[in-house]
Amino acid sequence: MVNKESLYPGILFHFTSKEGLEGILHDSFSVSYAREKIEFSIEGKAESREFAVPMISFCDLRISELKSHMDKYGSYGIGLTKNWANKNGLNPVFYVNQYSPLTSDFIKAVGKLYNQLNNIPIEEQLTMEKAYMDILNTYRYIKNYEGDLVRKGGEKTENYRFADEREWRFVPPIGSDLFPFVPLGKIETDEQKEELNKGISHERVSFQPEDIKYLIVESDSDITGLIKHLKRNKERFDEETIQYLASRILTVEQIHDDV
């Protein structure tokens, strides 16, 4: 039971395109590589680390807070319970201030640990490498509190407060059969990203119909099509479940006008 006085809802939302939502309902969530940039400061000099991480992103926002988020990430979404999120190991993002010594000290410490691995006796390396990868794994959950948001097509929003999204992530464990990090040079183009994502298309996160709390579409005209799509997936959604989900469909228009 969620504490009604909490600032946070008991639901996580994921936003995508119309085709993306239909794909999720048909065959669950698929992991894909997302480009990340962590900015920090060393002795007043701006530095950054850029890479790509396999993940699925969600936002921890109430319905009334979704308006601007949908403008940036898509008008089609699915809301699932936090119980589902907990069972699947999702975790909130760790927001860091690019000007804080905490951020630069952490990044420098990870780099030094990596450089020292070659000096460790071979019989200790497996243990140390595991410890190093466990520390490095936190990189995959770090995001700047504030920075420039660059969207597909090059549109940029300066001084965007990423923390407003209250992001949660599913990130496959290190040790699974995919690259935990990809250098930015290998994912600079959409073609490179598509090729990398093909290689991890088997990495999926499933859910049951009862895990769904809301479905969001752009307008009233999308509702009938979404219900038809659910009916085409009879192996996942029986008639009773479809009736329930139909009652949980919201439109962007409703959210903007009524919530």
Low-confidence stretches: none
The count of strands amounts to 15
**Order of helical and strand elements:** EHEEEHEHEEHHEEEEEHEEHHEH
The general outline is globular
**Level of helix content?**
25-40%
**How does the major sheet shape up?**
5 strands, antiparallel
Radius of gyration: 20 Å
Nearest-integer average pLDDT: 90
- Estimate what percentage of residues fall within beta strands: 25-35%
**Measured distance between first and last alpha carbons:** 23 Å
What structural class do you assign from the helix and strand content? Answer: alpha+beta
Number of helices: 9
Task: Give a quick rundown of the structure.
The chain has about 260 residues and is of the alpha+beta class. The protein has nine helices and 15 strands.
Would you write up a description of this structure?
With 259 residues, this protein is of the alpha+beta class. The chain has a domain at 11-35 and 46-93 and 161-258. It has nine helices and 15 strands. The chain has helices spanning 18-27, 67-73, 82-87, 101-116, 122-136, 190-198, 223-232, 239-246, 252-258; strands spanning 11-16, 29-30, 32-42, 45-59, 76-81, 91-92, 94-96, 142-144, 147-150, 156-160, 167-170, 182-183, 204-205, 212-217, 249-251. The strands form five sheets. Strands 3, 4, 6, 11 and 12 form a five-stranded antiparallel sheet that branches. The protein has a four-stranded mixed sheet with strand order 1-5-14-15. A hairpin with a 5-residue loop joins strand 9 and strand 10. The radius of gyration is 20 Å and the shape is globular.
